[in-house]
Amino acid sequence: xxxxxxxxxxxxxxxxxxxxxxxxxxxxxxxxxxxxxxxxxxxxxxxxxxxxxxxxxxxxxxxxxxxxxxxxxxxxxxxxxxxxxxxxxxxxxxxxxxxxxxxxxxxxxxxxxxxxxxxxxxxxxxxxxxxxxxxxxxxxxxxxxxxxxxxxxxxxxxxxxxxxxxxxxxxxxxxxxxxxxxxxxxxxxxxxxxxxxxxxxxxxxxxxxxxxxxxxxxxxxxxxxxxxxxxxxxxxxxxxxxxxxxxxxxxxxxxxxxxxxxxxxxxxxxxxxxxxxxxxxxxxxxxxxxxxxxxxxxxxxxxxxxxxxxxxxxxxxxxxxxxxxxxxxxxxxxxxxxxxxxxxxxxxxxxxxxxxxxxxxxxxxxxxxxxxxxxxxxxxxxxxxxxxxxxxxxxxxxxxxxxxxxxxxxxxxxxxxxxxxxxxxxxxxxxxxxxxxxxxxxxxxxxxxxxxxxxxxxxxxxxxxxxxxxxxxxxxxxxxxxxxxxxxxxxxxxxxxxxxxxxxxxxxxxxxxxxxxxxxxxxxxxxxxxxxxxxxxxxxxxxxxxxxxxxxxxxxxxxxxxxxxxxxxxxxxxxxxxxxxxxxxxxxxxxxxxxxxxxxxxxxxxxxxxxxxxxxxxxxxxxxxxxxxxxxxxxxxxxxxxxxxxxxxxxxxxxxxxxxxxxxxxxxxxxxxxxxxxxxxxxxxxxxxxxxxxxxxxxxxxxxxxxxxxxxxxxxxxxxxxxxxxxxxxxxxxxxxxxxxxxxxxxxxxxxxxxxxxxxxxxxxxxxxxxxxxxxxxxxxxxxxxxxxxxxxxxxxxxxxxxxxxxxxxxxxxxxxxxxxxxxxxxxxxxxxxxxxxxxxxxxxxxxxxxxxxxxxxxxxxxxxxxxxxxxxxxxxxxxxxxxxxxxxx
Length: 890
Ligand SMILES: *[C@@H]1O[C@H](CO)[C@@H](O)[C@H](O)[C@H]1NC(C)=O
Ligand SMILES: *[C@@H]1O[C@H](CO)[C@@H](O)[C@H](O)[C@H]1NC(C)=O
Ligand SMILES: *[C@@H]1O[C@H](CO)[C@@H](O)[C@H](O)[C@H]1NC(C)=O
Ligand SMILES: *[C@@H]1O[C@H](CO)[C@@H](O)[C@H](O)[C@H]1NC(C)=O
Ligand SMILES: *[C@@H]1O[C@H](CO)[C@@H](O)[C@H](O)[C@H]1NC(C)=O
Ligand SMILES: *[C@@H]1O[C@H](CO)[C@@H](O)[C@H](O)[C@H]1NC(C)=O
Ligand SMILES: *[C@@H]1O[C@H](CO)[C@@H](O)[C@H](O)[C@H]1NC(C)=O
Ligand SMILES: *[C@@H]1O[C@H](CO)[C@@H](O)[C@H](O)[C@H]1NC(C)=O
Ligand SMILES: *[C@@H]1O[C@H](CO)[C@@H](O)[C@H](O)[C@H]1NC(C)=O
Known about the structure:
12-stranded mixed sheet
C-alpha cells in the first residue's frame, strides 16, 4: 500500500495549464513563432506581460475560422494570449500553413481554451493533425481550464500544416500556436517526432518556461503530499555546462523520499505502448553536505541497473540519458535506490522523457501538392475543404480530387481533378501538367479561354479529358487527337470558338487534316449520344418504368436540344387518351401538391402515374407547355421521370413513371409496411434524393430550384431506389393550398426556408434548407411541427436538445440503437448546417451528397466493430495514464 503511494505516475503530452512564473529579462526570440489565434488582423503585435513573448495575429496564416473570446471569469486565470481564440464553424478540416526551415528541429506547441466563448457551455472535442497525421485528440470537457500540447518535430519541407479536424458536433478551436527552433544537438539525433513529458519537482502551481527557459520548453511542477517525498531547494546558482540548457529554476528544487531509506520511484506509460522511449534525467546536488555525508544511488530504468553509484555534483547539472526501444507493456519505470555507502537518500531535480509519435501517413507527393495549390491560387478557388494535405487523411481529402493510395507510407498521387462548373476563367493553367499521374481531367462548364494546350497530349496517364462547355479557341492539337486512338476520351463540345469541321477549313487551310479528324471524332460521339437518347426516349414513349441505370443521359443545356421533335410530340397525350389510361380516373394514388394522382396503364401493361392538375386556375398555366417541354428533358436516375403530358384546353396532366413503393414519409411513419426503416436504408434513400436534387441544382441549365423538397416527395421505385418527385413545378404553378400570385412564397410549411420566406429571394439554398428538414426527419422520426412540444418546430427542438447535450433523445428510438453513432452524428451535424438560418452558411448539395456518403461509409465500415462513439464521453482518449497523476492547479 505505502509502496504504491510512493509511485509517481507522470503524464505524457497533454498537460494542464498553469500560470507562468514571473518575468525576468526578456531574451532573444529569434525564430519563435508566437501566434495569438483569433486576434484581429489589424491589431499590432504585443508583448505578453506574463511571458515576455511577442504575439502576433494568426490571420496571415489561415483564411478560415472566426474570432471568439473567453468569458470574463477566465480573465484572471489565464494570460492574455489565451483569452481570444479562433474557432471553426465551417468545414471538417481547417489548417494553418506555417513557414519553417526544413530539417530544423522545432518544439511545436498549441494551447486550447474554450472558456465558454459562445455561452453554450459545451466543451468541444476534436482532433489535431500535423500534416496528414493525427497528433492528438483535444477533449476540452476534460480540460475545462484549457490544455496545452507540444511535440518535438523536424519538418522535412518548408511548410508545416497544422489542422483542426471536427469529429463531432462541436466546433474546433485554438488559442495559440507556439513554435520554437531548437539547437540541432540538444537531444541528440532523433529518428522522428517526439511527444514530451517534462517535469521539475516543487510544491507550486507555476510552470517554468520562457524567459527562464531560453527555448521556451514548458516544465511542469510535480508534487503531491501523498507521494511521501519532500522538496528541497537552494538559492545558490547552479551551473549548467551541458548542452541541455535546462533552466536554473527547474534545477533549484529537487524531490527526495521522506523516508531516507526508501527508493524514489517514478512511473509513466507510453502511447502507443510500443513507442521507443528516450529519458533525460537532470541532477544537481543542491544541499550543502557535511564532510561525513554522502549521497550516492543506483539508477534502475525498467528494472535494469543502468547506472551504479551515481553522486550528483555539487551545484552543477549532470544529465543521464537512457533509451529503450519499448517499455514493457508500455509501462516505464525509474527507480533511484540509495547505495549502502550513502548517508542521504536519492534525489532528482528534473526529468524529461520522450516517446516517438507514430506518423504513418506520407504526405501527398510534393510536386502534386505544389501543382494543385498553384491551380487553386490561379483560379482563386476558395473551397473550405481545400486546406491541408490534398489526399490524406482520406476522410477529409479535398473535394473534386481523387487520389491513388498505394501504401500508407508512400506519398499518395492525385489521379482525378474535376473542376466542372466551378466558374473557372482564364486559360487552362500550365501547372496541370505537373500532375503527372492524372487520369481524369474535367474542366467542363466553365468559361475557360485560350487554346487547348499541347502538353495535355504528353500526360501519358490521362484517360479522360472533358473540356466541353467553355470558351476555348484555336484548334485542338493533333497530338491530343491522336491520343484518342490509344483510348483517351476527349470531350470538347460547346466551345463555339474551338475549331471544328467547317470553321477551321476557312481559317486555317493548311491544317485541313486536323479538323477533319476532329470532326470525324466528334461526329461519331454525337451519333452515339444521339442514338442513346433516341433509344432512351423511345423507351419513355412506351412509358417503360424501368429506371435507366445509366444516370444522366441528357440535360437541357447540351447541344442536342434541337433534335427531332417527333419524340416530344409523341409524349403529348389527349384527354381521351388519359381517360383511357387511367380507366376513367378510377384508382387514386394520392394527392400531390398540384393535383390528384391516378394510377394508369399504357399499352395495357406499363404502369404509370398521372397527375391531373387542378383546373381552377388554368390561366396560371400559360407557360405549361414550355415548362413541361423543359422538364421532359431532365433525366436523372434519382428524379421521377416525366414521360408525357396532356395539354388540352382546361385539361392539364402530367404523366410520370410509376413508383410502386410509396414515399419516404410513409415508410418513416411505418404506415407502408409496419416495419422500421433501418438507419442504413434511410441513408441510402437520402443519398439518392440528394443526388437528384444536386442534379437539379448543378446539372441542369438553367439550374432548377425544386421549392418543395419534403419526405413525401421522395418516392421509391420497385428496387427501393429513391427518386425525387414534383420538381420544377412550383416555378410556374401555385401550390394547391395557396392562391396564385407570382410573388407568393411556395413550399410546404415546416420545410420552408425562413430566409426565403422573409426575403422572397429564392435560391438553391432554400432546397438545402428543406433537405435539412428531411434529414432531421430521418434522424428523429418526429413531426416537423408539433405544438405540444417544448419547441414547436423541429429545428428549434433539436437545437434545444443539442444545447442540453441530450443527443440520445434526438435519435429515433425505433432504431433501437442499431446504428453507428458516428454516422448519425455526422448526419445530424449536416442537417443542422443545412438548416442554418443564413443561406450563405448552408452547404451546397454536392457537399451534402458527399457528407451523406461519408455517413453511409461510417455506418457500413464501423458496424459490427466495437467502437461505440456514444460512450465517447467516458473513453480516455488522451495519453494520460491515470488521472491521479495529473498535476492539479491550485
Ligand atoms: C511563407 O513563405 C512564402 C514563400 O516563401 C511567402 O510567400 C509567405 O509570405 C510566407 N508567409 C509568412 C506568413 O511568412
Ligand atoms: C533533410 O533531412 C533528410 C533526412 O535526414 C535528408 O534526406 C534531406 O536531404 C535533408 N534535406 C536538406 C535540404 O537538408
Ligand atoms: C479551473 O481553474 C479555477 C481557478 O484556478 C479552479 O477554481 C477550477 O477548479 C479549475 N477547474 C478545473 C476543472 O480544473
Ligand atoms: C541545424 O542543422 C542544419 C543542417 O545541418 C543547419 O542548416 C542549421 O543551421 C542548424 N540549426 C541550428 C539552430 O544549429
Ligand atoms: C517552489 O515553490 C515555492 C512555493 O510555491 C515557491 O515559492 C518557489 O519559488 C518555488 N521554487 C522554484 C525554484 O520554483
Ligand atoms: C527551502 O528549504 C528550506 C528548508 O531547507 C525551507 O525552510 C524553505 O521554506 C524552502 N523555501 C522554499 C521557497 O521552498
Ligand atoms: C556527521 O557529523 C555530524 C557532526 O559533525 C554528526 O552530528 C552527524 O551525526 C554525523 N552523521 C553521520 C551520518 O555520521
Ligand atoms: C511544374 O514543374 C516544373 C518542372 O518540374 C517546375 O519548374 C514548376 O515550378 C512546377 N510548377 C508548379 C506549380 O509546381
Ligand atoms: C496507383 O499507383 C500504383 C503505383 O504507381 C499503380 O500500380 C496502380 O495501378 C495505381 N492505381 C490506380 C487505381 O490508378
